[in-house]
Amino acid sequence: MTRRFINELGENEALDQVFRVQSKRLRSNRNGNLYLQMDLADRTGAVNAMLWNANQQLNDSFESGDYLQVKGKTQFFSGSMQIIVSELEPVDAKTIDTADYFPLTSQKVDELLEKVRQILSGLSNPSLCQLAEAYLLDAQLVEKIQRAPAAMKNHHAYHGGLLEHIVSLLELVTRVAPHYDELDQDLLLMGAFLHDLAKVDELVYDTELGYSDEGELVGHLVMGVVTLEEKARQAAEPSGEPFPPVLLLRLKHMIVSHHGRLDYGSPKVPMTPEAIALHFLDDLDAKLQAFRQATAMDAGSNPGWTNYVPALGRKLYRTGVAGSGNEEAAQ
Amino acid sequence: MTRRFINELGENEALDQVFRVQSKRLRSNRNGNLYLQMDLADRTGAVNAMLWNANQQLNDSFESGDYLQVKGKTQFFSGSMQIIVSELEPVDAKTIDTADYFPLTSQKVDELLEKVRQILSGLSNPSLCQLAEAYLLDAQLVEKIQRAPAAMKNHHAYHGGLLEHIVSLLELVTRVAPHYDELDQDLLLMGAFLHDLAKVDELVYDTELGYSDEGELVGHLVMGVVTLEEKARQAAEPSGEPFPPVLLLRLKHMIVSHHGRLDYGSPKVPMTPEAIALHFLDDLDAKLQAFRQATAMDAGSNPGWTNYVPALGRKLYRTGVAGSGNEEAAQ
Amino acid sequence: MTRRFINELGENEALDQVFRVQSKRLRSNRNGNLYLQMDLADRTGAVNAMLWNANQQLNDSFESGDYLQVKGKTQFFSGSMQIIVSELEPVDAKTIDTADYFPLTSQKVDELLEKVRQILSGLSNPSLCQLAEAYLLDAQLVEKIQRAPAAMKNHHAYHGGLLEHIVSLLELVTRVAPHYDELDQDLLLMGAFLHDLAKVDELVYDTELGYSDEGELVGHLVMGVVTLEEKARQAAEPSGEPFPPVLLLRLKHMIVSHHGRLDYGSPKVPMTPEAIALHFLDDLDAKLQAFRQATAMDAGSNPGWTNYVPALGRKLYRTGVAGSGNEEAAQ
Amino acid sequence: MTRRFINELGENEALDQVFRVQSKRLRSNRNGNLYLQMDLADRTGAVNAMLWNANQQLNDSFESGDYLQVKGKTQFFSGSMQIIVSELEPVDAKTIDTADYFPLTSQKVDELLEKVRQILSGLSNPSLCQLAEAYLLDAQLVEKIQRAPAAMKNHHAYHGGLLEHIVSLLELVTRVAPHYDELDQDLLLMGAFLHDLAKVDELVYDTELGYSDEGELVGHLVMGVVTLEEKARQAAEPSGEPFPPVLLLRLKHMIVSHHGRLDYGSPKVPMTPEAIALHFLDDLDAKLQAFRQATAMDAGSNPGWTNYVPALGRKLYRTGVAGSGNEEAAQ
Amino acid sequence: MTRRFINELGENEALDQVFRVQSKRLRSNRNGNLYLQMDLADRTGAVNAMLWNANQQLNDSFESGDYLQVKGKTQFFSGSMQIIVSELEPVDAKTIDTADYFPLTSQKVDELLEKVRQILSGLSNPSLCQLAEAYLLDAQLVEKIQRAPAAMKNHHAYHGGLLEHIVSLLELVTRVAPHYDELDQDLLLMGAFLHDLAKVDELVYDTELGYSDEGELVGHLVMGVVTLEEKARQAAEPSGEPFPPVLLLRLKHMIVSHHGRLDYGSPKVPMTPEAIALHFLDDLDAKLQAFRQATAMDAGSNPGWTNYVPALGRKLYRTGVAGSGNEEAAQ
Amino acid sequence: MTRRFINELGENEALDQVFRVQSKRLRSNRNGNLYLQMDLADRTGAVNAMLWNANQQLNDSFESGDYLQVKGKTQFFSGSMQIIVSELEPVDAKTIDTADYFPLTSQKVDELLEKVRQILSGLSNPSLCQLAEAYLLDAQLVEKIQRAPAAMKNHHAYHGGLLEHIVSLLELVTRVAPHYDELDQDLLLMGAFLHDLAKVDELVYDTELGYSDEGELVGHLVMGVVTLEEKARQAAEPSGEPFPPVLLLRLKHMIVSHHGRLDYGSPKVPMTPEAIALHFLDDLDAKLQAFRQATAMDAGSNPGWTNYVPALGRKLYRTGVAGSGNEEAAQ
Description:
The structure is a homohexamer. Chain A has helices spanning about 55-60, 105-120, 125-135, 140-145, 160-175, 185-195, 200, 215, 220-235, 245-255, 275-295, 325-330; strands spanning about 15-30, 35-40, 45-50, 65-75, 80-90, 205, 210. Chain A is of the alpha+beta class. The first copy, chain A, is elongated and about 65 Å long. The interface between B and C is medium-sized, with 28 and 28 residues.
């Protein structure tokens, strides 16, 4: 039997197939009975699942990240798809094709990383080139980039999501920068690479997704500037000259201002052309990704609209996705 | 003697050359004495000018739009360049090369209009194609497009400015849309064409720049939807079929939501991918143009920073324009 | 047995009587069991009802709008009255007096519509008179006015509610306008008639109450201006003269500005006396109606206060309704 | 020669007539020279006036409140009418008809006060009747009511202005209250009388208009509640019973909530029908009065629009005042 | 068996011990079954408790304020500790040491009150001294002060909490005032005593915690000024002189402005040094108390962080409490 | 003749004495004439001064920081004291007692610095002690601390002002911290020392006061964290152990959160007790200093109130300073 992927699930389907456990919690209901609440994932998304009348032993029989053979039934609950699990059993990862269970295959992640290397190695500004190298030679950082999500929810909230967002933004920059004389493409590319990079340490994502203490208390904007200071020193060491100070200043400014407004957590508003452009292009990429995700995942409920998307503060008009405008007009 | 263009003027220069009168007012000072306050323009910008001890007769000797031979001296006042005029005399437009006196030559305006026609005629969606035609066959509208500014101040605030903004945005769309599967390029191009088009009637620009009564009381977002309704009817007439209603709805939505937030005057926030993209790309284009203008015009005062730009709520770091980042790094 | 009306229901009452089904949904609980959730209505209001252990067949046995004989018991849940239904059975509408099941009887709706016709036919401004006629001769529009609610929730959220709100506002205008020389009563009456009229197409109310796609994406302010443009053209046709443009402009302004603030969705703030008055009187009428509804409906819980009313962002002090101030003072 | 009233003044008129001095200041310009800046008033308004090269002696020759024979010339300055005074001479008040110099004649003020007495003596609630009497028997308060303005600027900012606002609001209440069953007319009338009454002590208006220290530090909302507490005690004394506590509470609530929002200085939002109505009707009356004043006073500059009115945060479309809508349409 | 205090409770503990009933409600679940929801308290805090399948008779067998022998089991539910009660039985208060059941023992409350008397009797300003006496001689007020909480939730939300907050603030003032020459310590102490005092009548706390009608409709800031007016009159009576008016004004200002911002419910912002200091010190004391409470109560869930604290709009980093910074550093 | 200090100056005084030039600009008026605008200072404050009909030569005859013998006359202009200078002549600094010309004498600055050293050397936490040493051994930093102002305007806006603010805050911490068990005094002292320290590089103050490019584009919060990272590394070097990470995190958090709100430029809100306390105490100290300065400087105009203080968004009630409350009451 071929697999039913999560974004294809309809209401009231009986299931008997493998999922990856993205997270799990053993909880009490109000009566004090235990149940198991899980997020089960495959490469097309994640779905909430409940197993009633669970116990500690069952909960201890597997970990987040494991694979489970799951028997159950789908249903709609509060406007979202859900699986009521009747049986589950751990499965050996070797017996399955794990590529089916991650939004990004490890091959895809490798390609994305290669893409970053390629774009940044093409920078014509030698200082920026050395700076990029200082980052990309940091094996620990590179390892984290490959795994970090871009956000807790909504946009690119999965392993590799940060990398995917960075690559999309780098490519967008190569399209947009040549259109404006006042944009220094090298600088803007470097800003696109750096703006969210400290998310590798702001978030924790080894098991369940969350914020690190430093992420909560300091945040990726300030953390990013601290790291930049260190990498700029490393980048400049071979030459014996300090890293060009105005260039460093403009990079720091892009990082701290990229949220665009004080009340969105940027201590400074964008005041250079590259900082202005970075803010808008980053926001555009994030919002379109959130759109893509919202429209892809809750396919079943309302043909015209997604559910309310908290991160965007609105619901979205779905009809656009399938290009219905054109098709309708073309008939 | 070669002309000193406005963006080249330094402090304390003696001048004796021709300017175009962009606006003029005869005013009283607190003592009741009359003086003439003018905005004098050439193709690089406009500069405030004062002639003290003026009188009604002098004021009546020329109109806004005329050319004047001006004798005077430049000075800095409140952080802006100003001309203290000692003598002025009307000049026949035929004796000068008027191309020196407009940001956009009429040839440039023709090219921009041609660019719009070319891009819109390339739309693959036949309904949108017919709609574009309905707009571009409206001679009165086309005449206004060629003259309308894009704003009262800041971005593209000069004749032809609206057209320039539209073309820049159309070209930007052709760069960005292919990067995102969820964007319907035709729809986004049409939105870019339409979003500000009602500014041709929101603003008045025959003599001095200002708002029309309808501009103040209704605004270009709502005016644009009213016109779209009419043009869609015209576009659909030949076929006997109504204009595709979902397509029309999505166009209207792009127009009303393009300011992005309710408190910025959009009665709806963007809820389709094209409306989201239009908002960000429009804002990006407008803000970079405002940057360009702010940095170009007050070249003399502070080497690092522009004056505070009210429309952006900030001052801008000028060093970026000349690519100093790169140059510094490259040495 | 005489009927217990919904606004008379107390806690723990056993019921066996007919209700009109206002809406219904078959839902799963977390365990995957189906239940039926309904809003049951009569002329005094609506009440949430639950039938546990439902199934598809039961759900298919009736439609929204049908009448049901309902057996069950009332209870308080989360501060609201609710009916736990044990049995239900469809009832033929012919066997009951349907006037008991709608807030407004069809006779009352007819009277309200007649009232609108009467007030608008009394306008002394001939252009406005013709304009009113253009609206009232539109049979499709008139049919919708008779059915449309004034809002999704809170104020006048029931069939005929829009008409009731319009009539209340028209009558309020005839009381207030003579008090102020600067108010043009005809203009203000027309504004009161038009300001929310596009709600007939912004909302859908054939079965369950909701927003139309155009309502979500464009909104009744802009939709109202588009319709006004068309009706003004029709009104002016017989005379061969265009509709007086300043008059049209002032009407459009009243429509777009009647929410009073940009962040409440008006793209323009009120700038004419009539627009200012319309905003305040509309808000007064809506808020007092919301008060009436909030105090009428949850009579049982707290003698002094209503529940928190989300649309008003506050709870309301109920003691006022029965005029206790006076009574207390008079004793 | 007949008097030119202030609201009739055009540009460049030579004047030689009497004005009342509303305020005056002897000031230095930047060069250290003294000049006299005055607000000169008659019954139609006030106009700024400057006398250059003044001295201490001239300044000491008259007081605010005196009448001056003024020679000078009108001019426009910064968009407002202004008088450049060449000569001035004090005039004995007995030689002129002072009714020409106050917006409200003392006869008119007497009538307004009588109107208040009449409306409040008609209250059917005996407690409120006694309370009104407690206020109106307070001779010091009544004296102040006759003189107090309703605001520092914009609406009713002249002696008697508070009384005028109160009467307008009382009359408006008698029109509106019968329209709504949930409004207790007596209570709302009393609220209309009390809501701004503490302005008699919040403002100072013996010479120049300003705030008292208590006005600045405590404000008329809280001051009004303190006075109400005292008057309610007095009103109840004869009966030996305390003033009905719920009635008192509802009156206090109307006073503290009448600005409608916390950020407008109301520590509570309106939560009773009368408090809701008072807020909207008060705001309506104040804004229409501000409109009337703005359109009356700067008649000369722009035919269609007033200047920007800071208190309203907008400019106003003047064409409405003269009923141009109707007239245009009626032709 | 020694008592397990509430702040020591872990997950899954079996309990059989006495609690004080802080509040209780008999409720229906969605199925119409009754359950009993209680807040059970001891001196370390309060915990939510549920008894399923309750009935009216059980509910009537005890009151809020009674003591119950409770059998049950703890569990985590929605991130908070909860007790699932299997059995309960009323217990005679005489058989237990009630000091275990209140955050503040009555002895502690007496000490706090004595502390207030001592600090205020030490005021060197005789008028303030007499004023303090007028308050402290009011037996009814003093009785309420001993019982009133300082807030509905979060900071000092228990009987005696208001007194505790006042004493903490008075002591803080004696530490801070000497540091600043511009602070009048007597005035600031009196402000600290008065600022929240009207909470004794704004809140109701005889059984369940809530707002009085006057608390909702008028609020403790305005109520406090009304009482101050009366107490100042009483304080001044013996001397035959009125209470010094500027002093009274400054006290009133401290009361009305102590929330610091209009949108936080203060009709005036602080404009004197003492009002500025009172606002910051009050806020500091309240927020640190909220921190203390949040970190003390939910000890079990996350070692590093408290749950989200709605009143603070954030969660709190717990590690600070145990001084981990120092300890870590000192090792 | 004894010197008239700036805070003693009355209107219309003739002056002939020495001032320090704090800043100067040669400017054109609207007519193109040159004048010299200066801020002249002594130890009690600064005052604006104008010399009309200046020229380049006069302007070149002295620098900011020089001392001038000034002849002129005081006047009020726009509510502020001003000097109209008729003559000026440079004076040799050796001939005067420079202590009269700085708010803080260099001896006072030495004492303040010594106070910092003393308080920080008393920290019992060894890591924090070493960290403080790392800062205080940085000679370049210490030199800047002695000169840096605490702000561009308002609070501590003069050389040494930053140091004065730090010392006041450190002393305030030693008073407040012992009052709260949850405050770690060492940590809070270190936070008080560090929170604004990067102002030494955010501002420029060698000649005229202003922002550095890094101050504008990155800001002192982020700059402070970058420096802390470096100093913590230095502090930990001798031990061979890294600086305790949680301690470092808590220090960083205090720096980034000390503005208290996102819209005030803090990318994080305070989430530890020390960060909460630092925010309130810092704000209290800054606002009281602003009060002190506002009331000290414009002594002449209004006896009861200062001018509007833009940084506080209000004017201040002056009567408090001289303790009038007490005095009045004590009479």
